[in-house]
Amino acid sequence: MRLSIIGSGYVGTTIAACFAEVGHEVVNVDIDEDVVATLNSGESPIHEPGLDDLIEEHAGDRLRATTDYEAVLDTDATFLALSTPSTDDGHIDLSIMEAAAESLGATLAEKDDYHLVVTKSTVVPTTTEEVIAPVLEEASGKTVGEEFDVGMNPEFLREGSAVEDFLDPDKVVLGSHTDRAAETLRAVFDPLVEQASDAAVVETGIREAEMIKYANNAFLAAKISLVNDLANICKEYGVDSSEVLDAIGLDSRIGSEFLGAGVGWGGSCFPKDVAAIIAAARDVGYEPAMLEAAVAVNDRQPVRMLDILRDHVDPSGARVAVLGLAFKPGTDDVRNSRAIPLIDALLDAGADVVGYDPVATENFRERFPDIDYADSAAAALDGADAALVVTDWDEFAALYDEFDAMNDPIVVDGRSIVTRRDDIVYESLV
Ligand SMILES: NC(=O)C1=CN([C@@H]2O[C@H](COP(=O)(O)OP(=O)(O)OC[C@H]3O[C@@H](n4cnc5c(N)ncnc54)[C@H](O)[C@@H]3O)[C@@H](O)[C@H]2O)C=CC1
Ligand SMILES: O=C(O)[C@H]1O[C@H](OP(=O)(O)OP(=O)(O)OC[C@H]2O[C@@H](n3ccc(=O)[nH]c3=O)[C@H](O)[C@@H]2O)[C@H](O)[C@@H](O)[C@@H]1O
């Protein structure tokens, strides 16, 4: 099939390269000329394992990029993979989606045959039908359900394993309202599902597909917060939370994944998506108490870390090494990293902060230009009064002798990965 993908960020680039890999002809449309040039030169505009190889193989053949929306006219279906950030009050900000839908609609005005427009971005229920479709109709002069259809196909890939997650998913969710849209979506995904090891295909309505994405992310975020609540209780009672969590994970109804207790969840999606579904729920008069609690627990974990530090050292004037600035290991993405609230609190308390991350320092420096940065964990620990571990990078698990260079070592481990030493004051956060 011939597919167009609007937006070439984490999701748009990954799905374009993967659709090309399973045999489709794909064109990426992005307003960013650098992104387009990078893709056309056979390189990936984002860092994701395996993506460079796919782009190198298919660019100039089944995969190309352009800034010109006219490219959509030679395709059968378009996926909208634009950012859906938060407004200041947590609501979803649809302005980028609306601008792209308007450009797409104006282009579709010139198309003679049927077209399917699929929302790939994470959007709150009713957005595709009540926001995107009307913009497309207005700009194209066409009617949804007649000359074109809309559909919804949420994305569940994770940064750091995006290609693998997309090509071998647990599930593919196809939301549509007409037989024609359902058939087109099936035809897009059939080659992928055939080669995936065990992908379930869920055919559903459009607003159900939109909600499945929020339910998925909200459930995972709430699972981590529940785990953190339980692990905090464990700590107060002197119970080893890792033994407790390993044991409950053996119950197949609970499952062993996403039981990692610690300083909490961050990133470009969980915080904004949980905030957006809370705001959307309130808009229709429902108070989502569980989700509000999940956020409250998550907000409290960095504060607990500082409280534990205070039990051992007064942060005012102390040199504190923060190990890990990325929101999770394997990425240089610092959006909503737990290091941000932690360092804000440390600076408020008068600490002298030195940060270290294997790959995320430059991105973090844009947010905190005035703290010190070290070139290695050892350099960050040298002369520090305390160390706080925020991201579970493997290299932090391997630290041992490096703690000798600290002044009276105090380690507060927000990810429970550091090897304990009897001669060091070691506190796990949970
Ligand atoms: N990043 C992730 O791991 C995942 C993200 N999602 C969702 O997918 C959506 C996209 O997220 P990302 O790919 O991370 O966003 P992103 O910010 O990485 O990429 C968006 C791209 O859209 C382009 N763009 C902006 N306005 C445009 C326009 N009018 N026309 C054409 N291109 C335009 C930008 O230049 C940028 O390259 C969001 O709704 C997000 O919540 C879903 C699953 C995973
Ligand atoms: O909607 C999205 O964009 C994506 O959001 C998450 O993916 P991602 O944010 O890339 O990363 P995760 O691996 O889920 O980690 C999110 C946060 O939770 C934290 N986490 C994760 C697992 C765990 O056990 N404990 C824990 O604290 C991580 O440190 C990180 O800060 C989801 O896992 C994806 O399915 C989803 O598509």
Explained architecture:
With 430 residues, the protein is an alpha/beta fold. 42% of the residues lie in helices and 14% in strands. It contains 15 helices and 14 strands. The protein has helices spanning 10-21, 33-40, 51-58, 95-108, 127-140, 162-167, 179-195, 206-237, 241-249, 270-283, 289-310, 339-348, 361-367, 377-381, 394-397, and strands at 2-6, 25-29, 63-66, 77-80, 115-119, 148-152, 171-175, 200-204, 319-323, 352-356, 372-373, 386-389, 410-413, 425-428. Strands 3-2-1-4-5-6 form a 6-stranded parallel sheet, sandwiched between helices. A 6-stranded parallel sheet has the order 11-10-9-12-13-14. Helix 4 packs across helix 5 and helix 8 (206-237) runs parallel beside helix 11 (289-310). The longest helix is centred in the middle third of the chain and has 32 residues, at 206-237. The protein is elongated, with a radius of gyration of 24 Å. The model has no long low-confidence stretch (mean pLDDT 97). It binds 1,4-dihydronicotinamide adenine dinucleotide and uridine-5'-diphosphate-glucuronic acid. Uridine-5'-diphosphate-glucuronic acid binds at residues 122, 155-159, 217, 220, 224, 258-260, 262, 264-267, 269-270, 327-328. It catalyses: UDP-alpha-D-glucose + 2 NAD(+) + H2O = UDP-alpha-D-glucuronate + 2 NADH + 3 H(+).
